[in-house]
Amino acid sequence: MTTPAAGPAMAAVAGALLALAAAAAVLCSPAAGEDAFGSESAAVGRGRRPVVPAMYVFGDSLLDAGNNNLLPPPAPRSVPPNGIDLPRTVSPRIGRCTNAYNLADIIAQQLGFKMSPPPYLSLTPLLNSDLLRGRGGANYASGGSGILDITGNGTIALRKQVQLFAETKATILRAGLVDRASLDDLLARSLFLISTGGNDFDAFDNDVPMSQAPEFIAGMVADYLKYINELYKLGARRLALLDIVPVGCLPSQRAITGNGECDPSGNSISQMFNALLRSEIAKAVVTSMPRLKYSVASLYNTYSDMIANPALAGKNKDFQREDCVR
Question: CA–CA distance from 63 to each of 96, 193, 203, 273, 280 (Å)?
Answer without folding.
Answer: 8, 9, 22, 20, 23
